[in-house]
Amino acid sequence: MNLVERQQRFLEAAQKHFGTSKAVRPRELFGVSNSAKIVEGGIQLGVVNLDNVKDDVEALIFGCVMRFPPEDEVYFAVLVRGDRANLVKRLADMKRLGSGIKTADTADEFELAESPTDDGGSVIKYKADNNNVAIYIARDGKLWLRNKGFWSSLDFDHSSVTPAIEPDQVVVALYPPTASARRSLLAREFTGWLGSLVGSQKVHELPVWADTATLSSDMRRMPASIPVAEIEAAVKALGGHYPHGEVRRFHAALNFLPHKHFVILSGLSGTGKTQLALKYARAVHGVASNTADDPLIFECPVRPEWTDPTGLTGYFDVLTNRYVVPTFLEAVLVATAHRESPVFVILDEMNLARVEYYLSDVLACMETRGGLQLHSNSVPLEGTTGASIRAELPLPTNLFIIGTINVDETTNPVSDKVLDRASLIEMSTVDVPGFLDSLVGREPELKEARATSETKLIEIHGLMQQYGLGFGYRLIEEFVRYHSFDATHLKSTTAEVTDQLLVQKVLVKLRGAERQRTLLTRLDKACEGLPRAQAFVRKLLADLDDFGSFQAMR
Hints:
With 554 residues, the chain is an alpha/beta fold. It folds into 3 domains: 3-210, no CATH class; 217-426, Rossmann fold (3-Layer(aba) Sandwich); 432-551, no CATH class. The chain is 37% helix and 18% strand. The protein has 18 helices and 21 strands. The strands form 7 sheets. The protein has a 5-stranded parallel β-sheet, sandwiched between helices.
């Protein structure tokens, strides 16, 4: 679809939304030179030809486009219907003033227009041979017109260029469309900023273009149809290290039921739980990079204050008169729209809040195969993503829900109600040598740093893991990368770096009581020659002697 076709499609959708039949739709507003442009205090919509405006129009629609890198185009159209007569009169006055014809009601203004003024000043100027009018929206939410030159700023006294025009509505559409109706950060902020000018209640998003073309053929295949060996190879190519069959178990747990796909990954922090979910989803979708955009993956961090389902399924905001669409609900909407594609939503650290509280509605739907009750309105509501939100929305069978949980003092226990509806995969076993092989295989420049840190890492991890205090792959990788950075920039000795890292990254995890005395004693011996680390361990031993327990971070 070329630019002209996109313009035409958008203007037709805007006219249909506005319900206009004879509205002027000046195409001259579209194009490189007439694209919308941000100026101080507002926005320049574009330029309209006075000859295109007739007295008998029922409304006017000013369409324009704003471009954002790398490729987003925000199309928007401003409707003037209620203040149409005022706008038409203003344009007619500008025609007369531009031609030099004085009338009783424009004589004073004509004399004013001939007086000298600066281009950015407060007095509008007219030109006899120029029928083109620049249109602006200022911070007051009103439309302002100018037909000679352009304003570089709207921050001036507008009293001499009255009357202003009141816009009725603004519609917005984004191109290219994406499967999730997501916007680039700039495009999303621009849409919100436009609402701050004219009032958010006046701005509405339109679904103008179909988005199926944005999905590759690999994104339209279900995981169960893909050989697991192919998925394992793709996960490994993405940097995943899961040597104990985690990918196979995850694949089976996620797909053994055709109507429900819900898996919880449990284990130590940093063992790659979230990364397993992300890399598996990318492998299924045929995405060969960890940084490439995948519109069918939704990451939903769980917040500790969630006590009801609104954090997942949204709510109606009476101030904006729209239904707030959180990430989880957006995933449900995308899965509903793309039934042939697997959509993955990741509930990260899902037991930071009580799972059975905020996930209750979703769990009920899994059990009964009913629908999510979103609101009680018989008419669909407009959502904050531009989608239409029905009162009830079933959970589609192509929605794959993956939760990650840690088991520590910051989290809540997961009830049997939740565990009965999910498959739980434990991921606490850490293969230090194997992970280091994988890391250096991907980044050979870390070979020397790996050699200087591997022995102590394996020794300390082996001691701590026996007491359930081990650490994960994230810490191991950062340990090696710290060594590499120091060797390049700081030139410290290997022992100094290891000593620092043990205190900063590893020993801070220690906590326990008399049962862990043997661990501390063995760690004290392992830290010989590392003064900071050894002093840290001996302080914990002193706490154990004095109080009967110890905790590194207290």
